[in-house]
Amino acid sequence: MQVNTLILGAGAAGLMAAAHAGRDVLVIDHARAPGEKIRISGGGRCNFTNMYCDFNSFLGENPHFHKSALSRYTQWDFIDLVKRHGIAWHEKTLGQLFCDGKSTQIIEMLRSEMQKAGATLWLRTQIREISRADARFHVTLEREGRRVVVSARSLVLATGGKSIPKMGATGAAYDIARQFGLAVTDTRPALVPFTFEKGRFSDLSGLSCNTRISNDKTAFEESLLFTHRGLSGPAILQISSYWQEGESVRVNLLPQLELESHLRRARQHHGRRALKTELGHLLPDRLVSFIAQDVDLKGNLADLPDQRIAGVATALQDWQVKPTGTEGYRTAEVTLGGISTSGLSSKSLEANDIPGLYVIGEAVDVTGWLGGYNFQWAWSSAVAAGQHIAARK
Fold first, then answer.
1. pTM
2. What pLDDT was estimated at residue 393?
3. Could you write out the DSSP letters of every residue in 265-331?
4. Which residues in the chain land under pLDDT 70?
5. Neighbours of 250 (CB within 10 A)
6. Beta strand pairing status for 125-133 and 136-143?
7. Counting beta carbons within 10 angstroms of the beta carbon of residue 246, is it exposed (0 to 12), middle (13 to 18) or buried (19 or more)?
8. With b meaning 16 or more CB within 10 Å and e meaning fewer, what string describes 291-325?
9. Of 67, 53, 132, 129, whose CA–CA distance to 96 is shortest?
10. How many CB atoms lie within 10 A of CB 257?
11. What is the rounded CA–CA span in Å between residue 136 and residue 24?
């Protein structure tokens, strides 16, 4: 069987690429349904892009590689597509855009665009072997109990990374890339909760508060969630992409307040008030009680010398915690690292030394922040590759 383009993976990037790659496109996936990560994203409403998506919100070995694709197909282009399909959406915090209805609307939109372009989708299809000869890729597939060899002029790797293996993630793109001589950078879970020694935060499980989480590389001011296993919430997921094993992170529990000055003013005007009572006006009582296990919070404000006030402020606004690890790929939203951009064209996502081989989406060593950035990279990289394929004579 011959096709012009074979796309491996029917996720966000694969479906989007199929809508732009021109004639005679076949998309295959081992899953029972396309777009499974889209379906579960955003609590079932799909955080499909971010209004503030910019070049500085992405990590990778080459900090400039993603700029070309993202500038040519922006968040506004995808928003226009969503509008054309009559999908209602809303903005949450920090520019995050979600469907008003179900995330399946985005999947249906992509399938509609793909079908309009004449592309074919095969599900429950396994890859058995890939080779290249005579300027074509020859892929042996297993489908419905029989083997089919598909010959394609262009081969697109859109199988994603290793995150959320229960959804079928395998990291297969890395193996295929290595087969063709492409380098693969070290990979690890990203946008993932931290774990700590057993029971460390069990008394606080379920408690959430606004924080500023930082390390020597960056900082994020968003909410933090205490769990039985450790720390989660948007601020933690964000910093996890910049965290290395063995490092501590700093937690500011009151990022909007200059706590030392506040306590000094409170000492002057409410000297008879207990320190724990004052802190209870600023933080949840459970959290204050937890902090009191390690920090002396006894006494009234009037009895506190400046040095002790400074110490309390440091304890709450520069609280250093050292995770034992992360929850791993099981709950990671994305994979950090991947197929090295050194071997790819930033304009087309085509391999520099293997004409017709393209890599898009999460499989590439480009990782965005939490909040729709990784979906935008999927859309942008897919359009860049698809349009390049369609333009080839």
1. 0.95
2. 58
3. HHHHH-TTSBHHHHHHTTS-HHHHHHHTTTS---SBGGG--HHHHHHHHHHHHSEEE--SEE-GGGT
4. 393
5. 17
6. antiparallel
7. exposed
8. beeebebeebbeebeeeebeebbebbbebeeebee
9. 53
10. 15
11. 14
